[in-house]
Amino acid sequence: MACALSTAPAAKSFNLDIINGSSCQLSIPTTSTGVRPKASGFRNESTSSSNFVICSFQRSSATGDYVYVGLVGYSLDGGSHDVACTAVAGSSPALHYSTKTASMWDTTEIPFVWSAEDFGGTGGAAIGGSMYFSVTCSLPPQTAISYIQAQS
């Protein structure tokens, strides 16, 4: 009688979701031709106007809430630009907000990172309600969102 041996698949310690910045969209529709999604991310190529941009996550309930979410941006012209972004976790009426500002000072990618502590939770814990998560940024001229990543 033959005995079959099988091995269990390795346990996965975490799940990392990465979404290209080109999946973001204008929060307030406009005819501005300087703001556009490209392969290199969502870019504000304008030299004069800021625009509100919203980036959301499409995710499965199988992986649970996120432990952290990061949005990565950069300067298109190499100049210094302050970018303000507000993350929202949860669904109405239980929405939780956290706003951060980062300076994009050159073409190097600069991260914004949100964790449970930013929403009143405990460090290292999952962000409550983050199965429904979005980030809205006021994207100044000559800045871009490269990508968004989240770990559950």
Describe what you observe in this structure.
The chain is mostly beta strands. The protein has a single domain (20-151), classed as Jelly Rolls. 0% of the residues lie in helices and 45% in strands. The strands form two sheets. Strands 1, 3, 4, 6, 9 and 11 form a six-stranded antiparallel sheet that branches. Strands 2-5-10-7-8 form a five-stranded antiparallel sheet, with no helix packed on it. The protein is globular, with a radius of gyration of 18 Å. The mean pLDDT is 87.
Describe this structure in a few short sentences.
This protein has 152 residues and is mainly β.
What descriptors fit this protein?
152 residues, mainly beta, Jelly Rolls, six-stranded antiparallel β-sheet, five-stranded antiparallel β-sheet, 45% strand
SSE blueprint and pairings:
Blueprint: E1 16-20, E2 25-26, E3 35-38, E4 41-44, E5 51-56, E6 68-75, E7 81-89, E8 96-104, E9 110-115, E10 133-139, E11 143-151
Antiparallel strand pairs: 1-11, 2-5, 3-4, 4-11, 5-10, 6-9, 6-11, 7-8, 7-10
Biggest beta-sheet profile: 6 strands, antiparallel
Element pattern in H and E: EEEEEEEEEEE
From the alpha-carbon coordinates, what is the Rg to the nearest angstrom?
A: 18 Å
Taken together, the total number of domains comes to 1
Examine the secondary-structure arrangement and name the CATH architecture. Sandwich
Estimated share of beta-strand residues: over 45%
Report the count of strand segments: 11
CATH topology: Jelly Rolls
The pLDDT mean sits at: 87
What structural category arises from helix and sheet content? Answer: mainly beta
Number of helices: 0
Which stretches are low in confidence, meaning pLDDT under 50 for 5 or more residues running? none
Shape: globular
Terminal Cα separation, in Å? 44 Å
